[in-house]
Design goal:
This protein has twelve helices and nine strands. By secondary structure, the chain is an alpha/beta fold. It binds 3-phosphoglyceric acid (3PG). Keywords: Carbohydrate metabolism, Lyase, Schiff base.
Length: 214
């Protein structure tokens, strides 16, 4: 097992849900990270879907060192490099391209590449990836698809994301090939914008207790 795989396993098994967030400023990212930590969530994926994503990653890495901060929605090698420079501890991509895999090969920061079909999963396994994102989970077949993959490609463990909420998270967490799920429901846009950090800590606390309930 590669060092990158070991590192990803450590990050993704530390809590049942990794929040996928988009923030409007570095300061907002820091406050959000603190609220999630208060609710027992110790890793976060800050997406580059907003212009503030990179500076938020840098600010969280500097000011909330107890939070394992990853970068999400990485589509290009340039973004990979920028996220690494900002201090991202893991990189998440919705899929995988030759260019992204090359960038990962030249970096010490582990990549969690996205996959949605058996062929994509087999291709990633061939590249040495045993931990994958499964995206967009609900839209491509959900927990039922992952369940049918488990006996066929048992080497691969997944972090499914896309359309997951408290309503269906249990269907995923009970599968043998699911390490954790990703989701934006822990950081709803309206609550982040309003600075309702207590509500976000409460959502995080509910999610961090899920493994015991599953
Ligand atoms: C992701 O990037 O992983 C997803 O967009 C998160 O999906 P969600 O917003 O449906 O939770």
């Amino acid at each position: 097992m590669s060092q990158d795989t070991k590192r990803l396993l450590a990050i993704l098994t530390a809590q049942p849900v990794v929040p996928v967030v988009a923030v409007d400023s570095a300061a907002q990212g820091v406050l959000l990270a603190r609220a999630l930590i208060a609710g027992g969530i110790g890793s976060i994926e800050v997406t580059l879907r907003t212009p503030a994503g990179l500076e938020a990653i840098a600010a969280i890495a500097a000011e909330v060192p107890e939070m394992v901060c990853g970068a999400g929605t990485i589509l290009t090698p340039k973004q990979f490099e920028q996220a690494e420079k900002a201090g991202a501890e893991f990189i998440v991509s919705p899929g995988a391209t030759v260019e992204i895999l090359d960038a990962a090969r030249n970096s010490d920061v582990p990549l969690l590449p996205g996959s949605a079909t058996p062929s994509e999963m087999m291709a990633m396994l061939q590249e040495g990836y045993e931990v994958l994102k499964f995206f967009p989970a609900e839209q491509v077949g959900g927990a039922a698809l992952l369940k049918s993959i488990a006996p066929v490609i048992p080497q691969i463990k997944f972090c499914p994301t896309g359309g997951i909420s408290m309503k269906n998270v249990g269907d995923y967490l009970k599968l043998p090939n699911v390490l954790c799920v990703g989701g934006s429901w822990l950081a709803p846009k309206d609550k982040v914008a309003a600075g309702d950090w207590d509500a976000i800590s409460a959502l995080a606390a509910e999610a961090s207790g899920l493994r015991d309930a599953a």
